């Protein structure tokens, strides 16, 4: 076994071939909407109807999407690797879970979840959320998608830093490396002495930080990498 503990970070690129759009590719989400209008607490406060409409559409689309060969390859790695596999995702879809991955750290939240801004209660989000929805626990109408917006603190960061500090291998899949703190994970892993690999359609903005790279569609390069890793 070459790498006892493998920490993987996935981004929108791993779900692209499942039909879910990315953010910064041509025609991506941030070409259609201003981040400050639909992905900040201030934007939600200004226009909750607009934000709910966007996340309702994304929630329905994600619910209908199916995992692709890259998601299934990571589930196989988690199942068959004799060491530890930790999957951290920036994605808010549930395609890793649909592919059978048992444990996923959703650092930016997930579309399937709803959150009460008043009492912090979390529950399974209905397909369509509305600003008049009341919290099942405190009945206040301060409900929102359980998504981490810009300016908010991503989830599980303490756990993630600890995993990076004890990783033997860090692999980034389908992420542009444009958003922190995820973009800094590769340097943290390197400081811990981990080998680092970037698997992406094209070089990300952090490509020079990686010891090894492989470029191509995730459905091709991720299964190849998993097969190599499991054959070691
Ligand atoms: N296979 C592999 N990689 C792909 C594919 C594919 N089929 N298609 C696109 N990519 C790559 C792109 O080359 C790009 O580097 O996926 C990356 C997508 O980058 P972004 O759209 O920036 O998505 P991501 O890196 O996940 O964004 C990070 O930014 O807006 C926030 O919260 C949002 O979680 C998101 C975060």
Quick overview of this protein structure:
This protein is of the alpha/beta class. The protein has helices at residues 29-32, 35-38, 41-46, 48-64, 69-80, 95-98, 157-165, 185-191, 218-231, and strands at residues 5-10, 84-89, 104-106, 109-116, 122-124, 143-147, 169-173, 195-200, 212-215.
Explain what the structure shows.
The chain has 232 residues and is an alpha/beta fold. The protein folds into two domains: 1-18 and 67-108 and 154-232, Rossmann fold (3-Layer(aba) Sandwich), CATH 3.40.50.1220; 21-64 and 111-147, SIR2/SIRT2 'Small Domain'. The chain has nine helices and nine strands. The chain has a six-stranded parallel β-sheet, with helices on both faces. Strands 5-4-6 form a three-stranded antiparallel β-sheet, with helices on one face. β4 and β5 (122-124) form a beta hairpin. α5 (69-80) packs parallel to α9 (218-231). The longest helix is centred in the N-terminal third of the chain and has 17 residues, at 48-64. It is globular. Adenosine-5-diphosphoribose (APR) binds next to loops. Adenosine-5-diphosphoribose is lined by residues 11-13, 16-17, 22-25, 28, 90, 108, 174-176, 178-179, 200-202, 204, 217-218.
